[in-house]
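Lab notebook, page 48
Experiment: co-folding of the full assembly
Goal: obtain a model of how the components sit together before planning crosslinking
Operator: M.T.
Materials (sequences as entered):
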Amino acid sequence: MTALMRYQAAILFRSHRWVLPLISYALLISVAGVGGQESLGDALNWSAAMLLPVVALLTRSMLTAEPPAARACVAAAAGPRKAQVAVLLTGLAGGAVLALAGAAYDLATSGELAKMLHAHPGLLGTSLGDGLGKAVICVLVGSAVGTFCNPPVIRHQAVAVLSTIAAVLVALLSSISPASAALRGSGAAIQSASWPTGVPFLVAAILLVASWLVSASLAARRGS
Amino acid sequence: MRLDGVGKRYGLRQPWVVRDVCVEAAPGQLIRLEGRNGSGKSTLLRVAAGITVPTAGRVCGRPSTGYVPERFPSGLAFSARDYLIHMGRIHGLRGPAVRAEADRWLGRLGAADYAGAPLRTLSKGMCQKVAIAQALLPRPGLLVLDEAWTGLDQPARGTLDAAVAERLADGGTVMFVDHHQARLAGQVSQRWQLGGGEVRLLEGPGTASATAAEGGRPEATVVIELSGVDPESLPQLGRLTGVVGARLVPSKDLEVGTASADGPVLVEIVALKAASDSVLRELLNWDDVHVAEVRACGEPTGDAR
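Observation: model returned without errors.
Model output:
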């Protein structure tokens, strides 16, 4: 799996398909501070939310990067399901890197940092943990959305792009989405009125596993 | 390895491409898949190589597999060497030996000068060489070649023929499809003939004429008789584009005196009628080779030229 992921990461970097997701994320998190001062918690919340569309986009980039003939050679060597999971895992790892970078940016640009470090160091840890927890859920849901709405599940390009956009909006705004529930949840634990503690994460993980299973089994059946 | 009741279709409402295929491939066997365009040769190769799972039945005992696709129009941004190193690692090879092997194969196939060039800048033939190198590099137990010879230059075709022989000698199984009927003809141990979704098993190499009699080759052919051919260049003759088969004419067929008049040996090659002009032109470049007669396939030998 390590060799497969190195190969996929090399494809991502050399094809410059990482540029668009990275720039979009940088733009999206930097516009949050434009309106004026906001708390560290709000900034982390916004950065987590913006991970969802960006990771969905990154997943789409990963799923469409490898030419079919090259994929066939890899599938013969490693098996078609494993080859597909390697693609998705590499996208997820990219999402995790973005999440950490986003949190670091928020910490660095927050005006409250020095004050909080001095007065309430415990509170700082809680906000950071809370923000990262939300980020993890958004990365998982973003990967699931990207996987469900792109090849090999949806192969038509226009349909894939439109359904990705629609699914991202639903995942961010609708009350049935674990990402939305986590983002709206207040306080230390990720919870909201309708979602008990831990459930958003659980649902996000289940969505991710389901989407990956469908994608891997379709990749094996269609033979890329 | 064994294909056990294997069937494949690409969707519930799609027709079966192949169905109820029960065949076995032993180590050291060279297997040729035959059939018209669209008969499911590539699909069966992909199922056997493990690239796609069968819709019905199963593939048992498949060893490590190297696959060469029909076309490798790579949009990858790797250099040829980096791509081969990645593929070597995916095949489970470790350490600096992978790089050495990658360079060795590129050298053998005559692509050493392009080892550092990005794949997307390479010609079709060069890309095909890289595709062949990635499949051969890990010395796979099963080598699957889907018209892998297409686009290769003459020396590289010879290298691929030799590499197939090496794999077989190593106890590997090789499966291939090629529209060139004489390809590896002497070494084929089994032929799988595809048609109407079914596979018929034919033992033995099968000569060009036998294939024609089975109706597997509907194109019209011509027989070209040559004199002055060095018998050792017979396989080379067989590889010419458009040539279906080449054989020495048994000495009893020869009239006394003919052999010594034009050269030591008389050779008969069967070529596609549509390609006969280019074959004859190509033969002009061969020193000491004289065309003795050209006739339509099936006609008796005539005295007139």
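Interpretation: Residues 2-222 of chain A form one domain.
Next step: discuss with group before ordering constructs.
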